[in-house]
């Protein structure tokens, strides 16, 4: 650059000043606003809850997803209080009595108001049930699967609803209608914009429940802000402002918790647990969930048609070892088709414990020595699923007389294979997870052994007969006994390699007084 | 060739590209393993529910019928229906677009503010420490994966130092601006700025490095040309020569790259949006993949494809307008 002027000093000065101004501006921008989630005095009158999944629809009767219910329950409130032991207690429904002719009458409180000021009446409750089970009335709802025994509902008068379930046992119906029923106002739904029967909307106006909190801001996919509903019939709300938002990454949720931007995060991965443990002011809280992980074996396909072979697979796998090594200890070995706390759980059953000699001997007995099997597993669908599958397959492969390899494949392929008949040999051995959302063993067992269900993978007439008997047993104790008996029978028949019930792991602000529940539900009224 | 004819030609090419994208998304769904219904409904769904969804989506029809109906819907702007979200795909996509555009523009601004002065300094101080520094910065910037940079920015500046939030977008720019313009309330605008700085840096770093290099090489080319010597001989100040004459000529290719990169930024914000929970198209794309929401996934890909084509046509048009030799060639 000969010949050109070099006003270097001036330009440098300008650049320095510009840089300093830039940094100062950034600092000013960064510092000029307080963190919106924290109070100056440190008092917790507002709370932020960050979930891995956010609601995608404002319709409370459409999907069957736990994180959705955590949001909807504060706004729409459950009809019943579901206790941590999964029993139901009075709430909006004050009393319920089976009539003895295939229905139960629910008595509704007469002082319940929707957020728009209208009264809740029995016909709203009946309409809500119809909406979930009949896609002519509402959307094609996933919740219909949890209400399998419910045939319909009808208002008898202003405060009485009759729920019909035909030949099904009252206690089975109770577990189903007791867990669903986020009531919507029929007239209000009629005024809403809907698509395929589901309420749509992108503002606070798309919500109208009877719960202790009402929606003041809603930005789809981003956040929903709640404030107490002044005319709520029950106890005063604990928090002045509640915000639910989403971060799909476990590490992102943990960073937000560390930075004090949120007070509670769900679904912390075991790899991130130590980060929370080592940070000040936050901690891990966990509880064994109702979600179990297992390896399905279709008994219409060789070698899984042999009970001895299926038992051998159970003896080959070291469940406790997988929990310790892959899940960081955050799980419990399965002893039966579902985890503890579910109605029908059999406390007398023990998990299969690894016994390679016994496993090899059972394989010999089965006549399938030398079998070569493939375990199909998804990756990223469940907690460390690929590692769990690989380890389980390695354990099986240790047997002298069985070769086992893993085939990781997209979940749709697994789901597709699971939906094929029980004797379809496309994907006869696969890893899958199942959450028992109704709290009743029927929900855990029926799909797998019911010949009418798309997911039937295990055909056994005796087991299915016992299940059918339990469905119709009106005495609750006798029904529980039948389900426990069925669980014991199925443990021996081993339709699955029973793996584990995984823990729900939360990162929590230490100041928050709250304990996780087995059903993974977050109720704000349980927090202080 | 007249400009109008040139634009029509580019438009027709663009339509062909969009048709290709639409067709590919259909083919990918068709050849993907598994029953599409199983990807849409909950695994607990009954056989009756599965059949209902199959019928509603026309999945009982042969592929050529499905493809024809699919094309018909696309032509009318109907991107399909997301059963996961219970509503049409188009509004879902449209409500996500502003966040992505905000991020892309912010990343571009970050890039320009840093890259152009750096490129000029680098060129005018060739083979001096400033040049080495700028070159090193370019190399590092181009080589650094933006997801890693994003995570590091969060850990250092959000978690440890605590001067920026870890992510999310609590307020939309247009809402914040409207509030500011109508009430002079600046709080929301500052909140937006505070939240976008880290994602914009993470997304814009590669772009910054690229523009720095382009500016440097462009400046070096121009500085050797006779008009520079002539202006120097006339006694014009060096600053004026570099920033008024040389940089202006250097800007033509940079503007072209800017336009093209804007399209890339829109499509490429996927990882950055995920790391920062920035609620744009990219984050939604990842969610739709995780939830196997095929209609939404197809809709987003088609929308990104269309955006890219439109931006390209606009940039080509502008470039042809500014430099008519492009048309003649």
Automatic annotation (TrEMBL), chain A:
UniProt lineage: Archaea, Methanobacteriati, Methanobacteriota, Stenosarchaea group, Halobacteria
Keyword Transport annotated: yes
Similarity comment text for this entry: Belongs to the bacterial solute-binding protein 5 family.
Name this protein carries in UniProt: ABC transporter substrate-binding protein
InterPro entries to which the protein is assigned, alphabetical: Peptide/Ni-bd, SBP_5, SBP_5_dom
The keyword Transmembrane helix appears for this protein: no
Domain Solute-binding protein family: 89-450
Keyword annotations: Signal, Transport
One protein family per Pfam: SBP_bac_5
One GO CC annotation: periplasmic space
Organism listed in the record: Halosolutus amylolyticus
UniProtKB/TrEMBL annotation, chain B:
Domain ABC transmembrane type-1 per the UniProt entry, residue ranges: 97-319
Subcellular location: Cell membrane
Any one annotated GO CC term: plasma membrane
Keywords tagged on the record: Cell membrane, Membrane, Transmembrane, Transmembrane helix, Transport
TM segment ranges: 12-31, 103-124, 136-159, 196-215, 252-276, 296-322
Coiled coil (residue ranges): none
Topology in the lipid bilayer: Multi-pass membrane protein
SUPFAM superfamilies per record: MetI-like (SSF161098)
CDD domains: TM_PBP2 (cd06261)
Main location as per UniProt: membrane
UniProt cross-references to InterPro entries, sorted A to Z: BPD_transp_1_N (IPR045621), MetI-like (IPR000515), MetI-like_sf (IPR035906)
Family per similarity comment: Belongs to the binding-protein-dependent transport system permease family.
Name the record gives this protein: ABC transporter permease
Naturally occurring in which organism (per UniProt): Halosolutus amylolyticus
């Amino acid at each position: 650059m000969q010949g050109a002027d070099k006003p270097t000093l001036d330009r440098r000065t300008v650049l320095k000043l510009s840089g300093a101004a830039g940094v100062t501006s950034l600092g000013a921008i960064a510092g000029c606003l307080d963190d919106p989630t924290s109070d100056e005095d440190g008092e917790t009158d507002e709370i932020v809850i960050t979930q891995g999944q956010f609601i995608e629809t404002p319709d409370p009767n459409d999907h069957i997803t736990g994180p959705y219910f955590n949001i909807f329950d504060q706004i729409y409130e459950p009809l019943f209080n579901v206790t941590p032991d999964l029993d139901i207690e009075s709430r909006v429904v004050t009393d319920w009595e089976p009539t003895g002719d295939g229905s139960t009458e629910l008595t509704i409180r007469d002082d319940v108001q929707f957020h728009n000021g209208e009264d809740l009446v029995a016909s709203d409750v009946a309409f809500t049930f119809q909406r979930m089970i009949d896609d002519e009335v509402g959307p094609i709802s996933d919740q219909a699967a949890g209400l399998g025994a419910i045939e319909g509902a009808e208002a008898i008068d202003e405060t009485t609803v009759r729920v019909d379930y035909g030949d099904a046992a009252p206690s089975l119906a109770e577990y189903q209608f007791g867990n669903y029923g986020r009531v919507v106002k029929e007239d209000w739904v009629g005024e809403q914009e809907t698509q395929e029967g589901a309420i749509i909307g992108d503002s606070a106006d798309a919500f109208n429940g009877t719960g202790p909190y009402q929606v003041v801001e809603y930005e789809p996919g981003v956040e929903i802000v709640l404030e107490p509903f002044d005319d709520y019939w029950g106890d005063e709300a604990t928090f002045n402002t509640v915000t639910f938002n989403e971060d799909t990454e476990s590490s992102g949720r943990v960073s937000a918790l560390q930075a004090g931007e949120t007070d509670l995060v769900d679904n912390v991965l075991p790899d991130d647990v130590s980060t929370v443990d080592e940070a000040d002011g936050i901690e891990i809280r966990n509880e064994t969930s109702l979600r179990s992980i297992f390896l399905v074996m279709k008994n219409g396909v060789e070698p899984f048609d042999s009970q001895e072979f299926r038992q051998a697979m159970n003896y080959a796998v070291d469940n406790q070892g997988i929990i310790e090594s892959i899940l960081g200890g955050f799980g419990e070995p399965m002893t039966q088709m579902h985890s503890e706390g579910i109605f029908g759980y059999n406390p007398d059953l023990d998990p299969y414990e690894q016994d390679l000699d016994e496993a090899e001997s059972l394989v010999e007995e089965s006549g399938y020595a030398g079998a070569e099997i493939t375990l199909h597993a998804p990756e990223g669908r469940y907690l460390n699923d690929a590692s769990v599958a690989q380890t389980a397959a390695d354990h099986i492969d240790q047997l002298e007389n069985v070769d086992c390899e893993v085939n990781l494949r997209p979940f749709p392929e697994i789901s597709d294979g699971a939906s094929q008949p029980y004797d379809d040999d496309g994907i006869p051995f696969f890893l899958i997870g199942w959450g028992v959302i109704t709290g009743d063993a029927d929900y855990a067992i029926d799909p797998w052994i019911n010949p009418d269900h798309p997911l039937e993978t295990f055909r056994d007439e005796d087991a299915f007969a016992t299940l059918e008997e339990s469905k119709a047993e009106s005495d609750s104790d006798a029904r529980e006994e039948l389900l426990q008996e069925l669980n014991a029978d199925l443990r021996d028949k081993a339709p699955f390699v029973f793996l584990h019930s995984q823990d729900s792991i939360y990162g929590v602000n230490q100041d928050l007084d709250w304990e996780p529940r087995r059903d993974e539900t977050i109720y704000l009224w349980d927090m202080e | 060739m007249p400009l109008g004819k040139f634009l029509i030609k580019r438009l027709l090419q663009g339509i062909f590209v969009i048709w290709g994208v639409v067709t590919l998304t259909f083919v990918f769904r068709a050849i993907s393993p598994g029953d599409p219904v199983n990807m849409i409904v909950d695994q607990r769904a009954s056989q009756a529910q599965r059949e209902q969804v199959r019928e509603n989506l026309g999945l009982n029809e042969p592929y050529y019928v499905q493809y024809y109906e699919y094309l018909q819907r696309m032509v009318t702007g109907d991107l399909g229906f997301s059963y996961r979200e219970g509503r049409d795909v188009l509004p879902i996509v449209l409500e996500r677009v502003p966040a992505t555009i905000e991020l892309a523009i912010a990343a571009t601004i970050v890039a320009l503010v840093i890259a152009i002065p750096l490129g000029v300094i680098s060129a005018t101080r060739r083979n001096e420490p400033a040049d080495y520094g700028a070159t090193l910065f370019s190399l590092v910037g181009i080589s650094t994966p933006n997801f890693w940079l994003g995570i590091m920015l969060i850990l250092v500046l959000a978690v440890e130092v605590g001067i920026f939030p870890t992510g999310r977008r609590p307020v939309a720019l247009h809402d914040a601006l409207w509030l500011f313009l109508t009430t002079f309330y600046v709080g929301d605008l500052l909140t937006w700025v505070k939240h976008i700085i880290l994602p914009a840096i993470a997304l814009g770093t590669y772009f910054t490095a690229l523009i720095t290099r382009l500016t440097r090489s462009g400046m070096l080319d121009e500085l050797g040309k006779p008009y520079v010597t002539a202006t120097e001989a006339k006694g014009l100040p060096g600053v004026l020569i570099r920033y008024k004459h040389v940089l202006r000529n250097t800007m033509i290719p940079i503007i072209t790259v800017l336009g093209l990169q804007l399209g890339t930024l829109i499509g490429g914000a996927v990882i950055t949006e995920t790391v920062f929970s920035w609620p744009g198209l990219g984050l939604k794309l990842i969610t739709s993949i995780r939830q196997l929401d095929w209609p939404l996934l197809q809709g987003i890909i088609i929308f990104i494809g269309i955006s890219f084509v439109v931006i390209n046509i606009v940039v080509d048009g502008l470039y042809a307008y500014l430099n008519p030799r492009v048309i003649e060639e």
